[in-house]
């Protein structure tokens, strides 16, 4: 059974959308097996998003991720990585399919409410960035 890292981003935590977003995950058959609300520093956000270091929006992205608390969580289920990305919808909410989290809640391509790992190797690294093995209760 697969696991993926999800982050409910500052735009969503500020608008009190954690419960509504979690309901979307659970309705899709994903189980939240770990979850914590944390305030990232800009440096921690930069470390997490290091793969995007060369992209023009990197600085803006790191500022945004440190602008308010986030909820980091581990989702478990059959094909959890792909299923989570399906429930999230396209990066740009303007392109996101109706009913997806980003279509319903995201404000812009930058402030797009959720993050989800994109492959098994990145999922493993991203889960380990936020959680110890003892915190994953499947
Ligand atoms: P994540 O699940 O957050 O990784 O989203 P993604 O895989 O759909 O998008 P990608 O990995 O390409 O980009 C990572 C994040 O950078 C996005 O979720 C956005 O928050 C941000 N981002 C991407 N493109 C832009 C952009 O053009 N402008 C700004 N400001 N942010 C962007
Ligand atoms: Mg990505």
From TrEMBL:
It is found in: Cytoplasm. It is an enzyme of class 2 (transferase). One of its GO terms (cellular component) is cytoplasm. Keywords: ATP-binding, Cytoplasm, Kinase, Magnesium, Metal-binding, Nucleotide metabolism, Nucleotide-binding, Phosphoprotein, Transferase. Residues 1-138 form the Nucleoside diphosphate kinase-like domain. It catalyses: a ribonucleoside 5'-diphosphate + ATP = a ribonucleoside 5'-triphosphate + ADP; a 2'-deoxyribonucleoside 5'-diphosphate + ATP = a 2'-deoxyribonucleoside 5'-triphosphate + ADP. Its cofactor is Mg(2+). One of its GO terms (biological process) is UTP biosynthetic process. PANTHER family: NUCLEOSIDE DIPHOSPHATE KINASE, NUCLEOSIDE DIPHOSPHATE KINASE DDB_G0292928-RELATED. Homotetramer. Belongs to the NDK family. Major role in the synthesis of nucleoside triphosphates other than ATP. The ATP gamma phosphate is transferred to the NDP beta phosphate via a ping-pong mechanism, using a phosphorylated active-site intermediate. This is Nucleoside diphosphate kinase. It comes from Poseidonocella pacifica. The lineage of its organism: Bacteria, Pseudomonadati, Pseudomonadota, Alphaproteobacteria, Rhodobacterales. The gene is ndk.
């Amino acid at each position: 059974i697969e696991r993926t890292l999800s982050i409910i981003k500052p735009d969503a935590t500020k608008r009190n959308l954690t419960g509504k977003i979690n309901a979307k995950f659970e309705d899709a058959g994903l189980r939240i097996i770990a979850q914590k609300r944390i305030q990232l520093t800009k440096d921690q956000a930069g470390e997490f998003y290091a793969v995007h270091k060369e992209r023009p929006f990197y600085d803006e992205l790191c500022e945004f991720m440190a602008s308010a608390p986030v909820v980091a969580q581990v989702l478990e289920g059959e094909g959890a990585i792909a299923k989570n990305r399906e429930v999230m919808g396209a990066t740009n909410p303007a392109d996101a399919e109706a009913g997806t989290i980003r279509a319903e809640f995201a404000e812009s391509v930058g402030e797009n409410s959720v993050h989800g790992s994109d492959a098994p190797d990145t999922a493993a690294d991203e889960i380990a960035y936020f959680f110890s093995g003892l915190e994953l209760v499947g």
